[in-house]
Inactive receptor kinase (Forsythia ovata), 147 residues
Amino acid sequence: MGVAHIHSQSGGTLVHGNIKSLNIFLNSQRYGCVPDLGLAKLMSPVVPPVIRTAGYRALEVADFRKVSQASDIYSFGVLLLELLTGKSPVHATSSDEVIHLVRWVHSVVYEEWTGEVFNIELLRYPNIEEEMVTMLQIGMSCVEEET
């Protein structure tokens, strides 16, 4: 809801530009909050927000300095995948192989091993699998490449 609110402001031209797990918190009423709005524009032009947030850059954003509502949506999708898997957006294996979360999730789901995607800690909650699959579908929709 926070991202949708941001995108509805200023005639639909406002973007966050730095959506990631470190920028989401719960307030005292347990509502998710998206802080850091507007700080992306104040950051040094040498290090634009889409570069600072490795793994969160939308694939269709050709200009590394340009953030958009589409890049915010992509970042939100990565955030959902991060929550569901318990994995970082980009991480290295013990053999120094770099794993990109979005590509990994796509490959696992494509091979129809969807159950392998989810963080084992989440599966201890009863009757949660259906909701997790729905969240996975939402996350994957957010990170789809525009064609």
